[in-house]
Amino acid sequence: MKLLSSPGSPYARKVRIVLAEKNVPHEFVRIRLLEPDSGIAAANPLGKIPALIRGDGRALYDSAVIVDYLEGLHPTPPLIPSDFENRIEVKRWEALADGVMDAIVAISHDYVLSDVPDGGLAWSNANQRRKIDLGLGVMAKDLGAREFCHGAALGLADIACGVALGYMDKELPAIDWRAAHPNLAHLYERLAARPSFQATRDLA
Ligand SMILES: N[C@@H](CCC(=O)N[C@@H](CS)C(=O)NCC(=O)O)C(=O)O
To answer: What's CA 23's distance to the chain center, in Å?
Structure first.
């Protein structure tokens, strides 16, 4: 299978960490999004990375669908629980972390409403910042004093949160989320030490 992506995409990093934790052989195909003929549209008509080309040539997107697919194909070690309630809870964690990443992208790429004068960009950034603050707040509250975001072992919830926190450091280093949420800082410290996080640091 092939993973179509480019350095810097946190959504792709989430997928790469899942691939690494499950030890799934794959080829990384670099996509240059800014080039008009980047090749991504043939795999994903929405023009977004990551996309996964399966063994039979069919493409999959977006990252949440890709990690679900990988879980089904390679169930060991389990990163998404199979029973309904726990599975939905882990997918909620993932949606929360992905939403924080969406807000970081919107601020750091400065493209939201960038053609709107009169404070449009400032309003948008404040709106995105609020999503980040509230999102991290819910992560911290739901993690509490536990070692993992959900359950008793590393899972997709931890991976998605860890990627979002790493992306905070890269794109918005002025925001001191560690001081606001020491339990997230401890979680991140443990995650960042894992070989799967280390090996994908260039894509943080
Ligand atoms: N929800 C999507 C988000 C993917 C996404 O927004 N990727 C960005 C790169 S980090 C992208 O491809 N942007 C190009 C575009 O939106 O045209 C996922 O989880 O895969």
So the answer is: 19
Can you give the three-state secondary structure of 87-117, one letter per residue?
A: HHHHHHHHHHHHHHHHHHHHHHCCCCCCCCC
167 CA distance to ligand 1 middle (Å):
14
| Cα–Cα distance for residue pair 2/159, rounded to 1 Å | 21
Closest CA to 78 of 26, 18, 24: 18
- The Cα 44–Cα 52 span in angstroms is 9
The one-letter amino acid at 163: V
Expressed in percent and rounded to 5, the helix, strand and coil fractions of the chain are: 55, 5, 40
More confident position, 15 or 113: 15
HSE-CB for 32 with a 13 A CA cutoff: 4
Between the CA of 11 and the centroid of ligand 1 the distance, in Å, is 7
Residue-wise pLDDT tens digits, 105-143? 999 875 544 555 556 677 789 999 999 999 999 999 999
d(CA 83, CA 140): 24
Is the pLDDT score of 67 beyond 70? yes
The model's pLDDT over 71-93, given as tens digits with 9 standing for 90+, comes to 999 999 999 999 999 999 999 99
Cα 172 to Cα 114: distance, rounded to the nearest angstrom? 18
What ligand 1 atom has the least distance to the C-alpha of 11? 19
Record the tokens describing residue 118, joined without a space. 């009169």
Q: Find the 48 Cα to ligand 1 centroid distance in Å.
A: 4
